[in-house]
Amino acid sequence: MIENKQQRKRKRGSSVGIHDEKQVKTKGLNEIITSLALLEDQEKNDLDELNKAHQDEKVQFEENHNKKTRAMVDYYSKVQDYHKDAEIAQVTKKRKVKLNAFSASAIAIGAASVELDSVSNDKINEKATSAGPQRRLWVKNRSKDWWDQCSSPDFPEEEFKKAFRMGKNTFELICNELSSAVSKENTMLRDAVPVRQRVAVCIWRLATGEPLRLVSKKFGLGISTCHKLVLEVCSAIRNVLMPKYLRWPDEETLSSIKDDFESISGIPNVVGSMYTTHIPIIAPKISVAAYFNRRHTERNQKTSYSITVQGVVDPRGVFTDVCIGYPGSMPDDQVLEKSTLFQRANSGFYEGVWIVGGIGYPLMDCVLVPYTHQHLTWTQHAFNEKIGEIQRVAKESFARLKGRWGCLQKRTEVKLQDLPVVLGACCVLHNICELNNEDLDPELKFELIDDEMVPEVGLRSADAMKARDTIAHNLLHHNHAGTSFFT
Q: What are the b/e assignments for 311-349, b being 16+ CB within 10 Å?
């Protein structure tokens, strides 16, 4: 019994202890939860205060920015008003100066009129007529003596031809053809440059290749005016004269051309001789490598840049087709492939006829070229000689082109984008001179040097190969071949 009582006491004591322990733990958890809630509320309050502070800073920043903007606008407005007032003051000052000058002139004129009161009206009118219109103050006084001499009927024909590479009659023909395209009307400010002087400026510039400052001195015009006139007249030549003087021949003319070329070489159905030359230019700002002429650079030991001119000529050396403006790094066969002539050839336009080219061109259905392999037979060598005679017509024509127009011999001031128009004008003027039998002065003879490279694919038509062999065979057996092979 005593033990049972003791056990019951122990059990009650342990249960009381457990209960007390639970109460302590519960109280601790409540305190922790309360602390966390307080921390959360504190953090929320801190965030609210921070956001409010940021908002206040933003509002203050915007207010400061608006103040600065208004201040800058006010300052800029004041500066504009200041400059405007200064301009008005300057204009007013100039007007006062001019007014004083005119007043002084009027006083002087009035005094002179009083002194001349005794002179009769007829004499006054005569003097006024002889004096002519007064020169305006802003026009620069330039001498036109040289051009006045050249345009005089008494100016020697030989001197005129030496200056303009053509006689007076040919020059007048060009002026009449271009009159409607280049003539300008007089304005209130100045008189327009006459048509003859406009054409003369352009032709003299092309003929001599002299800098614009020298052209300006010769013709008594401004440098910029001369530059503008050259481009305007060249454009008029392209638009007005090129369709008339540089075109593919009609059927009747082609028949005559075939006969003339056959009389030269014995080769039938030749309608043109083709050649490609290079025109030196200043290194362009874009695509420099494309215009670099490696062969000219190596030969002359001087860096050279150029553009190409491909042309087909008739037996007289008159151009019937030109392709102008491709970069100087391109060989002759690539220039041909990009030309309109090549496109027409592919469409069958030249079917049944030949255009003769040098070793730089490929053998095609319409392009006849010499044999280029080694160890030629007698027949092949004789054929090459005859092809060379036809090719010489084109080469000599290009030599006269460059000799007649000195601007083609050296790097020019003309911009790259304007060069095709200028070069086209030179070709048209060359044709006009050739058609009018304008002989070239021997002193202007130009030695033409253009490196020709054999194309990578030189034979592009099996039919053309057979036709060339047949022509070579007929030349030999019809006694048209030369005998220099043995000498």
A: bbbbbebbbbbbbbbbbbbbbbbebbeebebbeebeeee
